[in-house]
Hints:
The protein is α/β, with parallel strands linked by helices. It has one domain: Alpha-Beta Barrel (TIM Barrel). The chain contains 14 helices and 10 strands. It has helices at residues 2-18, 55-68, 86-94, 112-115, 130-137, 142-155, 174-183, 219-235, 243-251, 293-296, 300-310, 318-325, 329-338, 340-347; strands spanning 26-30, 72-76, 98-103, 120-123, 160-162, 165-166, 191-192, 269-272, 277-279, 288-289. It is globular, with a radius of gyration of 19 Å.
Amino acid sequence: MRQMTSGLRKAASLAGRYLSSGKPHHAQWLVTRKCNYRCAGCNVWKEQDEQELSATEIKKGLNILKNMGIVELTISGGDPLLRADIAEILDYASERFLTTVYDNGSMATKKIDALRKVDFVAISIDSLDENTNDAIKAVPGALKTAMHTVDVLQKEGIRVAVTPTISQKNLYEIMDITNYFMERKIPMWFCLYSYDTSVDSKQLFRIGKANDEFIITDKDAMIKLCNQLIEAMKKNPNILMTKKLLQTLRSLYEPNAERIWKCQALNQFLVVDHIGRISGCHNHNFSGSIFDLPKQWNSNEFKTLRKTYQDCTQCNYLCYIAYSLYGSPKSTLALAKDQWKNIRLILK
Ligand code: SF4
Ligand code: SF4
């Protein structure tokens, strides 16, 4: 009963924040720069850092994000589950936000109790072929470990989701991966291989590494995949995408490719790094500290940055596209209509 009351309190608080305008609704907090994998399309493991905020500092920052209007929080890294104090952080975050935590598949079974309250644990699996997946992760046995993790989490009643990163390496396999997990009633969403092209030497941090093998060259296949996912979504509420998001993704590969959205970095979303610096997205220079965010939010400096970011076309990271599409109260209501089946899944 107490759990139900606190769940309802959280839902009411989230709904109130979602419908407020002029505030950011999505935040990504990369709570660590440590990673135990060596993925071929990623820079994080090459630029690890021992420094990080303490759990107490992060909790202080989370209170700030809640008061700023953040509804959806993604906790990522490196691998955030490598932090010894991750249980304390996730516990605190889950009571305040719709919380997703990312894991490369290697850590979640060691932190089961820390994961019980989070809304989704996202496990990264890029291929069902051991050679392909393990080469992408550069860790032998990565697929077996991740599959075991998904099984254990599902048996433990923890909301596990699988998140392949679509690239030229696995493009023709994405529907097979989707069907495989749909049969097992595991929710899925997707990332899109993207790499940093920042010319800003003070970029907050680097994630995607340019790699010719990953860049999608078969545009027709990508368009077909978007169409297949749009069809599959109609029958399956476990595909946690929206039609609008897939149409937006598809538009990037059509003959007259165009960006049909304006980036809402530092407007509808922001990122926080492992030492508490914030930026609209990881590709740009940091704009201050999480602890000064309330003071800075309405500053002229932030207003100018927002305008610059709206015209920026530097990246196609799918999470940033989604946050840009679904950040305002109006778009949230449209999302609720489009995604009613998914919302029911989350509420369950
Ligand atoms: S993609 Fe994720 S798991 Fe792989 S090296 Fe980068 S941070 Fe680590
Ligand atoms: S398009 Fe948006 S998210 Fe991507 S680099 Fe530009 S400001 Fe950042």
